[in-house]
Amino acid sequence: MSKLSKKSLIASTIIGALAFSASNFAAADALTKLQKAEAQIIKASSKSQSKIDNIYEQTQELLAEYRNTVDEADVLRGYNDHVQLMVDDQKANIKSLQDQIAGIDKTKQGVVPLMYKMIDTLEKFVDLDVPMNIDARKERIAALRDVMGDSDVSVSEQFRLVLEAYEIEANYGTIFGVYQGELDLGDRTITADFVHMGRISFVAQSLDMKNAWVWNNEQRAWEALGDEYLKPVTDAVRMARKQLPLDLAKLPVFAAGAK
């Protein structure tokens, strides 16, 4: 081969090598760019996924809050319904109380005059009745009149006291009692023992047990008893004081309405 040919071959080889090297450089540069682009894409994708994850977590939190809010709303709705029932019941009770108060006012208008009539009737009854414990009974009636004028005493309490006085008067008809007091004989007054068997018999005896009297309710006066009644009256006094056992006693009868 001639020197020129060898030189041409070497030159061609160098040019081919340079061309190949240039081609490799171009490919490497493209690969680098591609790798950078992929890296950017991956990085961008990672950021996007992170944003998606954050959005998902926020969505789950909002969903949980919504569900809690819905649950609380249901609870509050149920509680409000319960409270409304209570309010409605209280309104009904208030209405009932208002009606009762109005009724009480009307009742008072009828009860108060009735009580005054009851006291007047009781006073007349005591005045006409056998006068055992007469002072205490009249004091009770006077106290009732004072109570009726006392604004600090309720109408219900006033009515209770009036009924109580009637009950006490009714009990006098069943009591076997004795007490000591002043006996007005018209011309003189002495201390005596008084004993009564309900309203059937009301007798008195001097403290020396030498004289005895029986109340005549028709005459509204005391009448002297004969000596045959002295011991029976003494025994009746002692039985009423539980100094003797209860037994039959012969006592005169001068009850209300007796002839």
TrEMBL record:
The lineage of its organism: Bacteria, Pseudomonadati, Pseudomonadota, Gammaproteobacteria, Alteromonadales. InterPro entries: UCP028069 (IPR016866). Pfam families: DUF3450. Residues 1-26 form the signal peptide. Keywords: Coiled coil, Signal. This is DUF3450 domain-containing protein. The keyword Signal applies. Residues 27-107 form a coiled coil. It comes from Colwellia chukchiensis.
